[in-house]
Write a structure and sequence with these properties.
The protein has about 650 residues and is α+β, with helices and mostly antiparallel strands. Helix content is about 35%, strand content about 15%. The chain has 18 helices and 21 strands. α3 packs across α11, α5 packs across α15 and α13 packs parallel to α15 (about 535-555). Bound molecules: flavin-adenine dinucleotide (FAD).
Length: about 650
Amino acid sequence: MSDNDINDVEHLACDVLIIGAGGAGLRAAVEARLAGKSVIVISKSLFGKAHTVMAEGGAAAAMGNVNANDNWQVHFRDTMRGGKFLNNYRMAELHAQEAPDRIWELETYGALFDRTADGKISQRNFGGHEYPRLAHVGDRTGLELIRTLQQKLVSLQQDDEAAGEAEERLRIIDETTITELFTDGGAVKGAFGYRRGTGRFTAIAAPAIVLATGGIGRSFKVTSNSWEYTGDGHALAMRAGASLINMEFIQFHPTGMVWPPSVRGILVTESVRGDGGVLKNSEGKRFMFDYIPEVFKAQYADNPEEADRWYTDPDNNRRPPELLPRDEVARAINSEVKEGRGTEHGGVYLDIASRRSADYIRERLPSMHHQFKELADVDITAEPMEVGPTCHYIMGGIEVDPDTAASSVAGLFAAGEVSGGMHGSNRLGGNSLSDLLVFGKRAGEYAAAHASAAEPPKLTDEEIAAASEDALRPFGNDGENPFALQDAMQAINGRLVGIIRRAGELEEALTELAALKSRIDNVTAAGGRAYNPGWHLALDLRNMYVCSVATAMAALERDESRGGHTREDAPGMNPEWRKTNLVATLADGGVRLARQPVPTMTPELLGLFETTELSKYMTPEEYGSSTTDPSTDPSTTTVEDA
Ligand SMILES: Cc1cc2nc3c(=O)[nH]c(=O)nc-3n(C[C@H](O)[C@H](O)[C@H](O)COP(=O)(O)OP(=O)(O)OC[C@H]3O[C@@H](n4cnc5c(N)ncnc54)[C@H](O)[C@@H]3O)c2cc1C
């Protein structure tokens, strides 16, 4: 066999294939396996090293442990407000209702959350959440979540082993990247990928597939995301015929590290602000009081005295503006820096040292203490941190049915960050960990049900050979180095599709991206197939490209500012745009963008809000309207890209 032998393919089969071993993938795997299905979980990185493990602050669930006034209705309201009412209301409803059960269930799997004085799961404050709501383990919550789900999977494998069928029903394959999905007659039937360590190909036949591949953050240079987040699941879904929703909404977390340059973008958890940290500019001013938008004035304190009282008496005071939703805080920091009140390294100060004791900081924020000491030689118990916005999360993603997590392609499901709709135009902190538990479980359940009703699919030699040839193409190309092309794409996105956007710049981005296309098609890989990061990136680039184009197109189309999409040339929210989702599909190799109506909330859910609040987001006739079916709505229109 030559190094580039396209015939050396490992053949596998299962009922439910799960692509991604973060929280969403692992929770789906538990559910599908408990439903009696054979399951394979594939992970691009080492098992246990998914993004979820990096989550710091916690998982939002209205358990009411710290403030008994909390309940799912309040959580639902906060989530819709955070998303500026563009959320898929049904997803937000299911999420708020089911998150507490998913957290308690984790305890039955062995999770150990921090406790309140009376022994309940402790819950902390976070931006946009009315009550303390984030179940946490210090600032290492994601680690506990992944550890627990892995432990659950191992215990299920041990059951199988005892029955003499180890790995028959649950197999985990890490360091393997899926590059293609196979479809037949509009339904998925398997996937193709390569083992990173050897470069050997793998073809897996499966009637049901769950995409749980996380986000797209690596399309930007300054990001909290790690190397794996290249939009693979988004692009795989599109190539299989599914649609992406609202890709313009990208969350720039307000607080990433800004110094030294080698660590720029690494996250500084919102828990620092939840636990009392405040933002100051270079003049020492606590500036967030100047940036409270009209729609949030009723809930946020407009003076430091009231804001500080809130930490001990939240029932009688309004919240500090440092805890506004992330999009608001990120924009405020951006403005301060732009107006010359930033720090030496282009950020602002985040100060908890002058407000909390060193012991408190070390106990509540051990990872942050360690991170700043090790990476920046800053002792956060004695000095302020320098922070600035960093690309963190994509609200856009695969369009799914809210109850079943099914995409428009039969047998293809999606959960976690790769799916769209749940968070509307902006995600609240803590709502991702709960989202991936709620919808990971649902995706696993419905994928298992789909597999039960399907025939075992067969993969053909021809389609496997075509996928192999495709994957090997960079070795035969004579173009550019993949790292140079990634830099070029990151530069376009950072400069022209970043936190503040303008129509002219977005057009420029699309032109520059289009010019990059042929260079990406001709990207070159050198060397052999074993552990070859250049080859791996060469294959990832086409995914990053298609996601970048979908984002820039949707950002140009939506000429309003909402959540994680700020148009300097179209400031403010437009109630007409609140009724519209932008849906991207692939057609003739290009991205196609369509407008679809946002499903309207049921009267029961609308009734959870004051009319005065709804009037800030909606047109008057909407308050009393009932659900619209997008597929039959005549106002659906489309635009084509180049
Ligand atoms: C530093 C940091 C802190 C955060 N803190 C919080 C927090 O406190 N609370 C909160 O709610 N959210 C937080 N988030 C966001 C949250 O962690 C993520 O949104 C969430 O973990 C995503 O989970 P997931 O299961 O969807 O995907 P991930 O955990 O991102 O896992 C994706 C999986 O897919 C695999 N994969 C990707 N592409 C392929 C491919 N082509 N083939 C095979 N496998 C593939 C990856 O290897 C990985 O296993 C934080 C994010 C970061 C970066």
